[in-house]
Every structure is written in structure tokens, then in C-alpha cells.
Design goal:
The complex is a heterodimer of chains A (about 425) and B (about 325). Chain A is of the alpha/beta class and about 425 residues long. Helix content of chain A is about 45%, strand content about 15%. Chain B is built from 14 helices and two strands; from the N terminus they run αββααααααααααααα. Classes of the chains: A alpha/beta (about 425), B mainly alpha (about 325).
Amino acid sequence: MKRVATAATLIALMLAAVGTASGAGTHRSAGATKLTVWVGWSARELSAFRKLAAEYQKANPGVTLNVVGSINDDKIVAAIRAGTAPDVVSSFNSYDVGVYCGTGGWIDLSSLMKASGISTSMFPATTNYYTQYGGKKCALPLLADAYGLYYNKALFKKAGIAGPPKTIAELTADAKKLTIRNPDGSLKQVGLDPFIGFYENVPERWILPWGGTYTDSKNHAHLATDSAWSKWLTWQKQMIDWYGYKNLVKFQAGLGDEFSASNAFEVGKVAMNLDGEWRVAFIKAEHPTLDYGTAPMPAADPSLYGSGYINGTIIGIPKNGKHTQQAWDFVKWVTTNTHALAEFSNAIKNVPSTVASTHSKELVPDAHFATFLKIFANPKSGTSPIEASGVSYTNAVQNFATKWQAGSIKNLASGLSSLDKQLDAQVKQAKGGGVP
Amino acid sequence: MERRRARRRAAWRRRRLVLLLMSPWLVGFSVFFGYPLVMSAYLSLNHYDLLSSPRWVGLANYRYLFSVDPQTWTAVKNTLWMIGVLVPLQVLSAFGLALMLARARTGVGIFRTIFYLPALAPPVAATLGFVFILNPATGPVNTILGHLGISGPLWFQDPSWAKPSLVMLGIWGVGNTMIIFLAAVLDVPRTLYESAQLDGAGPLQRLRYVTVPSISPVLLFAAVLGVIQGLQYFTQAYVAAGVASGQASQAADVTSVTLGYPVDSTLFYPVLLYQHGFVDFQMGYASAMAMFLFAVSFVVTLAIVINSRRWVHSGAR
């Protein structure tokens, strides 16, 4: 009996100690709120974000920010599932917003925005599109990427071309003029590589200048009936056949990695290239003497010239985050403060994501970069479709395009019809609706 | 009466001891196999996106798998191709190497080491090495072929060559199976060969009537293991597709569309399962795929084992 009493006393003491310890923890967190912020950036870009976080902490002494870099969507989903999500999360994959909003994984920010007087009109329409789904605004844009044409001025001069192409006909003619073959017929220099899967070449970036859309008014995929798709795919295949599919694949196999100093455009192996605005910073760091220019992508419809593809980093609050209000205060500041956006934009050379910040006097002027600010502000610019099936929607389109360019699809019209059915079935499946 | 009770107590003590000794395995089996299997079966009947609660959909995931998803049959065909080609070639090359090594008179240790070494290379590193060596533009293989006046294939970049390239990688790393075959071949009693020789059997007849029957349990083991590994073929395909597609710097970015590159030729069933579960976040659907894979693995293994009774000679008979 005595032993039982002693054991009971010991257990009681241990429980008391545990209680005191946890109580002390709660007390500490009440003093200074520690927010954990997950971001995808790493290395130089992560340092720039940490600098921004330090500025926020300085202005808000009651908050300490623990910034964790190199986060991807897998980690975000796993943490939300496990109930260990941080206070603030950000993702490079804006097309996954359909998953985050649709499942409630990221909370709807609408009421917080309303209470803080943050209107969606502060952001360009395209960024508003890729930060919402199903009537829920579960993310805000944190800098954006705009895509345009990079062209090598020295190679243009050598080929006798005066300026960047504006139409598809000019693009085709210039690409051929800028291509140099070896005596054995293999490719030495390529004017423009339209191969889907090469560097930043994906269908959603190429289809915009052709005016293509994904769905009809009932949100059914209509790639087979929107003639822009067949026009673009036909042009793309003709270009690839002109180079020779095998020639182009072999040429690409010998090129340097996209995110290295051996990038094909940077070393003059490719004369024109579709790329994002960040390439300006890469060229400055890796090949500062490169004589190049930037322009919008040539368009099939002249009224679309000047527009381009946009996407970007999204930031939000996971459903089981612990300090929602403080997290929102930080999200609000980092996504709407003109000074913060301009400073971060200067540091990592991404496009600032509010309308006001694109005109900020703090932005370091750069003629190459200015092109992308204009593309971003263009009302006809667009982005990837946001669907419940997330990235698998655009992946299916890309999968189709890679088969088409390889010659595996013989009948484009029936192939696109099957793709439409597949896309609709995929969306229904992702919503839990099963087989259509 | 008292003696019976004592016997019962002793038997219970023995059972308790057995249970205690088995408990690490029991816990491991329940946590890492039993529970996931039951959960997979349950989730395969639900819509589950990892972020919201599972919702019952009955057999909808299975219907989508078999009647709608166009990638399912591509992945099944690729996987069957790999099993049909890689497994026999691996078994034959491991057996052939073991026979040669068993007959070697000098430098046995050196040759055994040379042929076993590739098995020590981690699959990711080995795949990276193969992709670089077989690079159609800069790789040494095509450079040498070029000097010989032969235009080399595009290897991992060509839909018709990507799987054969993976087969080459699989045969190169056959060291583990080779060692097992070598042990089995060396274990065949010499007296059997001597008797066969006295009966007038030539080398091929000795191989057919002495060696093969004697090592048939090892052949069965290699075949079953090869088929199961073929059904789970993932790492090499995942890495090769990522690197060959030119996305080496983004190999960790699972959202990049490289799975199955080029043109779905390396889209194996486990790769597709991974894509649906961890890229598309459709864990309910991925669970249905996993259950189908489990059922197929079980049936195929059972079929091989039952069929093997006709050709495997165990020492007991």
C-alpha cells in the first residue's frame, strides 16, 4: 500500500511538472507571437525574403518570424494533414489553388480582407483568377512571373533581322533564318525551339498568343472546337518537322541546364526563347555582356500582341494554423505593401504583384525588365486554368502535346476530342463525382 | 487433475514466450503492412484528396481506373513489357555469369568482384550515370558509335529506346542475383556431374539434366523476386525520365511533367500510382490502383509458385 501511495505521489508530481512546463510555454507564446512562414525560395532568393521578414519584425516587435525555405506542395499537404502546418504557407504552383481552395486546406481570406479593407481591385485580374477557386479567395499573389520573348540582338544583326517578330509569320521566318545546321544536317544553332517540354515551353504559355481558351460557358473542355488549339498545334508540328524531330531532340540533349550559366539562350545556342522575367537577373549575373532584348511573344491575332502568360507565387493561411490574425497581418503586409513588393521585386527580379507596386518609384529601372511589367499589366494577359484537378489538368494537355509533336497522334481533331473528354472526366473525378 | 493444470500452465507459459519473441515482428507487420493494407482497401472506396475527410464513393475509383483513365492501360502495357523482357534477361544473364564464374580457374576473386560491383551502386546514381553515358549528343557511347560511322539512337530520349535502355541498366546491376546463382551452382554435388559424364552426357546435357534441376529452387526465387520487382518498378524510371527530359535541376519538383518521358514510354504502373497520389493528391484513387497492384502481384506470384511444382526439384522429394 505504501508503495502504491509513493507511486501515486510521484505520478502526481510528474503531471504537475508537465502541466507547469506546458503552461510556461503558453505564457511565452502569449508574450511574443512566433509565426512560422514556409516559402519555396532557396539560396539567394530565400535570403531576400528573410531580409523582408526582418523588416516586418522591426516594424512589429510583438512578432517573430521563423522563415523556412525550399518548401514544395508535398510538404504543405503533408503538414496540413498531420496538423503541423505553419502559420503562413506559400507555393510556386498557383494552379494548385483549385486543390487548396476546393478542399479548404487553405482558409478563405475573404472576411479578413473585407475587415482590413483589402479589395481585389488592388491586384490585376489574372492574379485574382489564380488566387481563387469555387467562390473562395484562399490565397493572395506574392510577386508574379510574366513570360515574353528573349532575343539575341547580336545574332539578329548577323542574320540581318531588324527587330523582334510581332506576328507568327515573322516568328517563323526569323526562326528559320536564325537556324544554322552542321554539314551532316544536325543543328548547330536554333532560331526558336518550340518543342513542348524544352525549358519553359508548356502549352498554357504558348496558347495565349493564339487566343486559345480551355472551357466553354458550362466549364466543359472545348479544345477540339476552339480553333486556336488546332492552329497552334499544327504550326508547332510544322516547325518541329522543319527542324526534324530527332535533330531537335539530339540538339536539346547537348544543351546546358536551364537554370545554369550554360542556358542555351545565354550561350547563344538558341537565338529566340520563351522565358520568364527572372532570366533578366540570371543574365545579369551569368552573362552580363550578352547583347539581347525582350519583347512580348508574337501573336496570331494582332490585338493580342503585348499580352502574355502570367503566374506566380501564392501565399495563404493553412486551415490548422495557430495564429490566424497575426498570420493575416503579415500576409496582408507582404502582399499589399508597395515598398515591400518593390524591394522584393528588385532583389529577386520577379514582377511586383499589385497594380500600385508596378508603378513604384522604388523599382530599379531596367529596360529588359520593363517589358514584363507591361505584359503583367496588359488586360489580355492570362494564366493556367484553375480546376479542381489542379496541376493534372494542364499536365494532361501537355501530355497530349508531347505525343502530338512526336507524331504519335495521327488525327488531331479526334485526339483533341478525346482530350476534352479526359479533362472533363478528370475534373469530375477530382471533385469526387466518379465516372462521368 | 493437478498434473493437467500444471501442463496447461506450462503450455501457456510457452505460448507467452513465443508471442513475446514474435512481438517485434508482429508489431512491425501490423504497423507497416497490416494497417496500411486495410487503410488502402478502405480509402480505395472513398474520395480522398489528403486535405478533406474521406467520402464514400463505392467502386467509382475502380470504374475510373478500368474504364476512363487513358493512362492506365499505357502503364499496364509498359509494366508488362518490362517484366516480360527484363526478368528473363536478368535471370539468364545472372545464371550465365554464375556458370562462367564457377568454371573460372584463375582470377576468380577479381571477376566476381567486377561483376558484383555494379550491384553496389545506388539505383539513383546508377540511373544518372546511364543517362549521361547514353546522352545522344554528348555521351561517350554515341561518340564512339559516331567514330565507327554508326548514328547512335536517342536512347532515353526516344520512346522506342527508353525501355531497352532501362533493361540495359537492369542487366548491368544483376550482381545480387548472380551471387545467389553462383552459390547454388557451386553447391551442386560434383558426383552428379561425374555420374552424368560416365553416362555419356555432354556439357549441354549436364547443364540441362544436372545443373538446372539442382538449382531450380533458386531459379524460382529469382523469377518470383524479378516479377515482384518488375511490378514495383519506379526509381530508375522516375530518375531517368526527369534527367533525360532536361529537368535535372528540378528533379525534386514533382509537378514538372516529366513522369513517363518520353511520350509515356517509361510510364510504369507504380509511376502512375505515384503521380495520382502525390502529384494530383488523389489518394483514394491511388489506393484503388494500389489494391489492384496488390491483387495482381498476389495472383502472379501464386501462379508462378503453383506452376513451379512441375519444374522445381526440392530436396524433400
